[in-house]
Write a structure and sequence with these properties.
The chain is α/β, with parallel strands linked by helices. About 30% of the residues lie in helices and about 25% in strands. It has a 9-stranded mixed beta sheet with strand order 3-4-2-1-5-6-7-11-8, sandwiched between helices. Strands 9-10 form a two-stranded antiparallel sheet. Helix 1 crosses helix 5 (about 145-160) and helix 2 runs parallel beside helix 3 (about 110-120).
Amino acid sequence: MRILITNDDGINAPGLEALAEIAAELAGPGGEVWTVAPAFEQSGVGHCISYAHPTLIAELSPRRWAAEGSPADCVLAGLGDILSDRRPDLVLSGVNRGNNAGENVMYSGTIGGAMEGALQGVRSIALSQYLGPGTARLDDPFEGARLHGSRVIRALLDHADWAEGEDYPLFYNVNFPPCSAAEVRGTRVTPQGRREGVGFGVKAQVAPNGRRFLWIAGGSQQAPGGTGSDVEALRANHIAVTPMRPDLTCRATTERLAAVLDEG
């Protein structure tokens, strides 16, 4: 198997190291793992692409490249340039430092990398490790993802619906709970939730030179997120698997409004 991996925490992030191990296990002795990851951290960039300026790429070592761009840029670089001779069988994005459940999905560069892979016609999976008190005490806070990752990915490759050939293909969002690998209670397939009362905001700060700066701040990750959701699965120490596609249409509202507004 030929696998392309990327992330949004940057080329030197420990989560990318964990993902490289997962990918190597999946690829097998005769397979290939290629890394194309951002040269610098790109958390929160979503599905951004560097449309208005070029992206500098550099080979750091065999099959390991850094790009001065977003995770989606990295996937495009991998598919369109570095691996243009033969496309990969799988794109993996992560393992993110922190969860990408609930409202976090809309901002996540990790999700953006997997989404771009799916749009390019390659099976794609985003992986994130929820961090909290249960992982802070571990020597390796990514051990849940590291030890359970290949099993979950294999199950998705063998059994998931990939909707290949449709206008908007499926990809998968996998979150590992904030606990040790031994404390993981299993896997749940869940819809995306939304944490109650949680959103991003700004905090103002005046620098010593008198200039005013705004810091983007997130809300509590411990808030409940709806019964049966990805948020609640993680709070119960389950791995959350959420099928997604890059289609933001609300179809129920589309049908209702069409009955009232469509003309001619």
